[in-house]
Amino acid sequence: MAPFVHAEPVRFSDIDHAGIVYYPRFFHYFHLAFEELWRARVGPRAYVELLDRDRVGFPVVRATCEFVAPLRFGDTAEIEVSVIKLGGKSITFRYRVFRAADAAQPRAASATGEVVCAVVDLARFVAMPVPERVVALLSDLVEPPHSE
Amino acid sequence: MAPFVHAEPVRFSDIDHAGIVYYPRFFHYFHLAFEELWRARVGPRAYVELLDRDRVGFPVVRATCEFVAPLRFGDTAEIEVSVIKLGGKSITFRYRVFRAADAAQPRAASATGEVVCAVVDLARFVAMPVPERVVALLSDLVEPPHSE
Amino acid sequence: MAPFVHAEPVRFSDIDHAGIVYYPRFFHYFHLAFEELWRARVGPRAYVELLDRDRVGFPVVRATCEFVAPLRFGDTAEIEVSVIKLGGKSITFRYRVFRAADAAQPRAASATGEVVCAVVDLARFVAMPVPERVVALLSDLVEPPHSE
Amino acid sequence: MAPFVHAEPVRFSDIDHAGIVYYPRFFHYFHLAFEELWRARVGPRAYVELLDRDRVGFPVVRATCEFVAPLRFGDTAEIEVSVIKLGGKSITFRYRVFRAADAAQPRAASATGEVVCAVVDLARFVAMPVPERVVALLSDLVEPPHSE
Prior knowledge:
The structure is a homotetramer. By secondary structure, the first copy, chain A, is an alpha+beta fold.
């Protein structure tokens, strides 16, 4: 299993008064990587069509993040997406954020998070099974059991 | 004419890598003051009902801001709202942002902007006259001609 | 033990494409309540002086949130702050977010989170004991053991 | 003269309650394109080193934007950067934002803005001439006189 990876430069405005990336932005980075997964594998309108045309949504039920080392302006965030659990009526994603290697510094772990999404029929606001095409999109990202 | 004033503390996350409020946030401050004008004068659901129930929208046609002095974390932004032009099918707002006085510093000008909004029937996406109740909400905020 | 409460209107820009508050914003709401705790109890420059003058920082080590019901534009978020653990070299905060009661709806739970902060001497980047005045600020917010 | 172009997908969180990109985000898009200009032409740490090592800053003095057509989630913003005035102690940038062409829609203008930056010696907080290497970076982006 190789994770999907999205590289996102830390932006001038991601920084807070302490001079590091504002911690809620890491959850935003998670979401950017999720959006890019759809763009890269299906197309730029794939995710919006799932939501607006097919009326399938992924509301977040639980999100958690452990912070290891801060990111700063000038760094690039590398966000790895994998899937811990894919089945029934929810999906659990794992996101690992790294500071990318550059001329000055080696690659280094920055944060690790988990996000549990429900799968919802937006027309009726009820839970629904994970659609087949979402399973197809994500199946190679499922981590083997007991991996850490 | 006395402007409407909204005080908003500069937030930890409003700061950019240069240690001052990220300049696009000033347009967000303008919008916060606009939202608070509705909340304070009509009620917490006044603006959302205008949009969602009555289907009247105010898309921004032109926005401009002159920046005089930066704001920093610990400062409070005082945002004054007045109206330069109220009539026909558009409204022109003026926003003046000040750093609030505190124990350490006197009140000082930070930025001044103008925002031109169209008035739009959202059901048909066509321009419409400013509704009577919007005129009533804003009429005491209209600046006399030639004021600066 | 009564928690500290900060009320923050959901902003026009807090909404995402799904029409509800973007989930990473909840962690931002947590931070707003934390900032307001300092403002309300000590003063508008209390937190910035702790950081910049006294060089004491609170980097987040772990953050988690369970989402119960979404918030929408027009709602007001009521954010309750309490302390689960205050001691040694870290502080664990609990944040409970509610949709405020209004004419149309009763108060309702929206989300619950926990944020673990280290306490750090920013001049030397090493962990340090929780300063006395921070203990004093927070001690009435400490939840009794076994509370849920 | 060919402008520098940066393509940025509209993000799930760029959307406001009206279902379109929140207008202050356009000024953020301008800044993203400015950051990418440095990254693409010099390197990922070029802009941060100018600020932090060389202590040269570009505070915004005046920003303006005309909005032609909204952007929505699923669209990609193409942001063109050119220079209207490069000389003395300030730089005036022009930013043109387009909705990128895709299978469903042709390319279309969305917004046009101008941003005037001062050039400042951050160590002494005084205006300074545009550094030579900044002139070199930007000189091919200068629009011929009278262009619109």
